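#struct-pred
JK: can someone run the complex with NAP? inputs below
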Amino acid sequence: MSVTNRSEIRVGILGAGTVGHGILNLLRDNAKTVEARLGAPIHVRRVVARDRAKSRDSMIPAERLSFDPAEVIADPEIDIVVEVMGGLEPAHTLIRQAIEAGKHVVTANKALIAEHGDALIELAEKKGVDLYFEAAVAGGIPILRVLREALASDRVVSLSGIVNGTSNYILSRMQSGNVEFADALREAQEKGYAEADPTLDVGGGDAAQKLTILATLAYGARLVPKDVHTVGIDAVGAVDMRFADRFGYVIKPIAVAKRAHAGQLDLRVHPALVAKTHPLATVNGALNVIYLEGAMLGPCIISGLGAGALPTAMSVVSDIMDVARNLMVGAHSRVPVRAYQGTSLEVQPVQPIGELRARHYLRVPVRDLPGVLAQVAGALGKHGVSIEQMVQDQKLPGTDATSIVLLTHEAKDAEVRSALEELTKLETVLERPRVLRIEE
Ligand code: NAP
Ligand code: HSE
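RT: done, structure tokens with the ligand placed:
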């Protein structure tokens, strides 16, 4: 159907939470701009929620509110199903049913795309419909479009960044505001940044899902989230932030997807020390950032809000508009959504984390006794880990407990882990040392 004879684009939205409301607000406030750019208005025919007892604001007229997703899937008038419910089920089954029913789909669900994206995208191609998911990675930042379209002729060499707004918000608040972890998390939840299960944010699972999608588009790799070495921010203490600061670093929740040696991919999500002069160091709050290097382009950095109602809704509605443009000219799958043709995607080897070489930060809680320093240095040296800098904290009042905090020269991850085991066994070491990688 051509743009001239399509009077409106009709959508059904599964989910009426933070993002669902953001979409409704955006379509109300930006209706004129959207229509002027698309050539047709977007009409929301139905919004589906789960909890009948919840009070709903006037954004959703009663006649359009439903508690039955099947009504959207079965409605012949709906062109595009928008899934913003989250979680694997029933979202997976519903998207599959929508595609089977010939609907185009837009989703913000990174968990679903990271786990089942390949099968769903291949089903969509077979059925002649589009499946778009820009909002699934880095909220409002159009990074998937950049990888898919703007960099189509380039080869990505490395990609790193901050892709979880909640974790970045928490660490930024702890760093600058003397706020405890639990209070910062509560604030992030109140602002609508966190997942329904916030352990996905603070445990690194959400970032690993996003990195899986990013690495697929960047390197043409078939990956699943468990390919990503994942460590959460929950073990970062305010004390580590203070020591990092003394050495000239800040602690950030980073995600890395780089080409390592022998064609392997270095895929990891973890908190890391980054120098205060590093491009990621000043990206604070719920802001996300992606720093990539193209073989032709060279370095490129893109930053913006990675979570929140309106930035995320903006990505969702831009996807709806992209799908609608295809719909208007009777096209689909014109640009491969994974940036590579499905036949070109391949399983690629992932570098074992033990092989990674990095400098490390180590905080070793010890009894302040003669010879302790030599014991710590000896345990590290035995495993080939060499000390670059070191400070010792003042004793805790009324005790002989203190911390030796050091930065190592570059060492293999496996060597650092062995040294850690050795340190933990020392009688003078009071608790398991804290270790963080330093990202150069
Ligand atoms: P949310 O605030 O928890 O909203 C979820 C909505 O889905 C609620 O309206 C809920 O209904 C509805 N729902 C859940 N299960 C349902 C079911 N079985 N049947 C019908 N309705 C159901 O979540 P959100 O923050 O909007 O996130 C939605 C999705 O967007 C997730 O995949 C998330 O990862 C992704 N995302 C979120 C952000 C963000 O900043 N929040 C950013 C990027 C991507 P009730 O209202 O009745 O509870
Ligand atoms: N919970 C996610 C975050 C939402 O904090 O980044 C955006 O995907």
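RT: quick notes.
The mean pLDDT is 95.
The radius of gyration is 24 Å.
JK: thanks, will look after standup
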